[in-house]
């Protein structure tokens, strides 16, 4: 019954507001990624959860979605929406292009 109730965004939001949600933020973020994964794969890409710490979600984009010029738009429209729906308590999403060199500042996309 609780699982069914948490499918309602309003109920889930109330549980989060009162720190009663049974799933931690990492579990909810992972659920959001799984929800958007078919869309990303249909465009030749994928998304990997790197970490969740202090409300900041770090992702790595793979394939076309990570290297095409519209990857920022794809991320903003699909991944961001799915993640904020699954975990509205996210403070920031940082995505790194999986095809680029790690730690290169130019390959990071920060969404707020």
Percent helix, as a range, is 40-55%
Provide the β-strand percentage band: 15-25%
Structural class: alpha+beta
- Indicate the mean pLDDT: 77
Q: Low-confidence runs (pLDDT<50, min 5 residues)?
A: 100-108
Please state the CA-atom Rg, rounded to the nearest Å: 14 Å
Description of the structure:
The chain has 112 residues and is α+β, with helices and mostly antiparallel strands. It contains 5 helices and 4 strands; from the N terminus they run H-H-H-E-E-H-H-E-E. Strands 1-2-3-4 form a 4-stranded mixed beta sheet. Helix 3 packs antiparallel against helix 5. The termini are far apart.
Give a brief rundown of this model.
The chain is α+β, with helices and mostly antiparallel strands. It has helices spanning 2-6, 9-17, 25-42, 64-67, 71-86; strands at residues 45-53, 56-63, 92-97, 108-111.
